[in-house]
């Protein structure tokens, strides 16, 4: 576990050193759970947005995008259930005075049991070698089965208690499992209480006339209230989707794990409107479609899994998470939810306006059902950053730190390196820069020996280095070095654009998910 913690600490320090992410207002000792994205971070974030948007909107003729306001009429949040039900169960330790999410304490206890299962599996895999059948071992080994049953029982009980809002049983579960405060080591817990996560603010010229507002805790409601506007102006026929990328705000009491859980974050969401009764098929379709998008980035199928929800939100009839293997274990990256007609039906009730669709095939009007796909942009950023950062041992015994970000998402696609700052090499390097920057984000680096420049670009995540040397003066060829393989090849300057585009161009990556 300590090793994983060390890896995560390295990700955080690398993010700062190479201009990806820093704590907000750092010169004033920072603001807890709020972060700023620096020059490389802003580019990576932009590229993730673009890759999602093109896959979601551009490749689907029945999905369009909107950009709704952060401020919404306060009744929106009454209708959506956020005013009454958007809570986290919190518990305090009386000795350390630290506050925790009660459900997370239990889930972390279960994660330790799951870690014991993985330990048994890896021990058996070593013992049996190639003859090892992992599925059979998990299904028949007494110890593994016992651990699994224990974990399942705990999670089911937690889900049941939270669903019934039986906070006393949640506390009893924590006590029965002998869960201690990570800081004080004591079991001196308060009762579990619900805490609303919305940030309140005011709109108006004077305190007396001001209206109470909320910063939106999710982007989905901006889509629902605009359902008819988009459907009518775009002459959309069901099934169709509305996508949106935007900021959301949650007053997380226990925000932690770097940018995994923040108070200000960005969501990439798509609400897909369908005929009632077709939700099962569409739910499965969107689960597979979204997993295909993730796998297209080449970060390894073994690092993703589906996790079906034990506890369903009151409006859902099915829900699953796509979980990713972060340095701190498998955690939620994206949610796929079958939301029935709760949202549109509720807004119809609270607004007094009809939010229905006339289906020309059925010749009837109905409130559509919805399948939602919702991914945290910041979590996606962290998944990419933490998976990409590796220390490689080279053949000569030395090591290099390299950020193997999928080339389509890399902040800088290529660095142009003149071997020396004289003999006309900088001029040719500048000529290459001017040509490539029309299509790619490129940088110029002429400081230090070329080997050190390669290492610097590797650590920053740049897929290609282009070295301009004295041979370039004779035959107008350059050396193109590949970040991941360190392979170098000579090619003419006019072939550079095509060679880089084949590796980093979005169209080539999007083809994988068609």
What's this entry about, in short?
With 514 residues, the protein is an alpha+beta fold. It has 18 helices and 23 strands.
Query: What's the end-to-end separation, in Å?
Result: 39 Å
Please mark out the parts with pLDDT under 50 across 5 or more consecutive residues, or reply none: none
Give the overall shape: globular
The helix content, as a percent range, equals 25-40%
Across the major sheet, the strand order is 3-9-10-16-13-12-11
CATH topology of the largest domain: BirA Bifunctional Protein, domain 2
Tally of separate domains: 3
CATH class of the largest domain: Alpha Beta
Query: What can be said about the biggest beta sheet?
Result: 7 strands, mixed
Can you give a write-up of this model?
Its main location: cytoplasm. Belongs to the class-II aminoacyl-tRNA synthetase family. It comes from Muriicola jejuensis. With about 525 residues, this protein is α+β, with helices and mostly antiparallel strands. The strands form seven sheets. The chain has a seven-stranded mixed β-sheet with strand order 3-9-10-16-13-12-11. A hairpin with a 7-residue loop joins strand 7 (about 200-205) and strand 8 (about 210-215). Helix 5 packs antiparallel against helix 7 (about 140-165). It is globular, with a radius of gyration of 26 Å. It starts with a helix and ends with a helix. The model has no long low-confidence stretch (mean pLDDT about 90).
